[in-house]
Amino acid sequence: AQKVTQAQTEISVVEKEDVTLDCVYETRDTTYYLFWYKQPPSGELVFLIRRNSFDEQNEISGRYSWNFQKSTSSFNFTITASQVVDSAVYFCALTLYNFNKFYFGSGTKLNVKP
Amino acid sequence: EAQVTQNPRYLITVTGKKLTVTCSQNMNHEYMSWYRQDPGLGLRQIYYSMNVEVTDKGDVPEGYKVSRKEKRNFPLILESPSPNQTSLYFCASSSSGGSVLLYEQYFGPGTRLTVT
Predict the structure, then answer these.
(1) Which of A8, A24, A39, A60 could form a disulfide with A65 if both were Cys (CB 3.0 to 4.6 A apart)?
(2) Nearest-CA neighbor of A73 among A28, A108, A37?
(3) Cβ <8 Å between A43 and B109
(4) B32-65 burial, b if ≥16 CB within 10 A, otherwise e?
(5) First vs last Cα of chain A: how many Å apart?
């Protein structure tokens, strides 16, 4: 069975602080895909990143970076120099190679205070 | 503009009154899916469809029906809604192609359903 755990329910930081959102996944399949989505207060779901299980390179996009470690089954998301606009609920998700079922974590609510 | 649309966006109904939430995408995507979002539970998949006339259950299909008669549309049907189906519902679509080139899901704006 597949499972995604986001143990941090809510995190509060002050603007310009760095923050890491944790994501731990479970699967016995060797080919899978991991995602991060952002849900701002307006409610829409915004795609941030997709990572294949056979590509363990970390990725950086502006202030965002992702650390994928198969050894610990983790796909953590770091925001550097956080801004108020980063306040949102962030979801980590997993799907297998045949791309049918998606498994989402329960989400981490990030509050960035000015 | 590429988009996934859902209607209605908000709905308040009573127990047992059949309803349909429509979902339509204009990107010619093969894959479509329905999710419900509840506090503390994240998004849970209700049903998904790999293509026209091909649908399958997600993790929480009880009390829901779907159909995929056209590629662009994937309606969610609640034949006899109950209060525990009060939730925020999202439709999503993606180009799948069946290869290792996997694309992200595009989500609709959500439908907030209240069943009293």
Answers:
(1) A60
(2) A28
(3) yes
(4) bbbbbbeeeebbbbbbbbbeeeebeebbbbeebe
(5) 41
Nearest residue to A66 via CA among A44, A91, A48: A48
Residue B75 near residue B69 (C-beta atoms within 8 A): no
| Interval B52-64: pLDDT, tens | 999 999 999 999 9
Contact A19/A32 with Cβ under 8 angstroms? no
- Tell me which chain B residues have a C-beta less than 8 angstroms from the C-beta of A94: none
The rounded distance, in Å, linking the Cα atoms of B100 and B98 is 7
Q: How far is the C-alpha of B52 from the C-alpha of A44, rounded, in Å?
A: 26
How does pLDDT run across A49-67, given as a tens digit for each residue? 988 898 888 888 899 999 9
For A37, the token pair is 């989505």
> How far A80 CA lies from chain B's nearest CA (Å)?
24
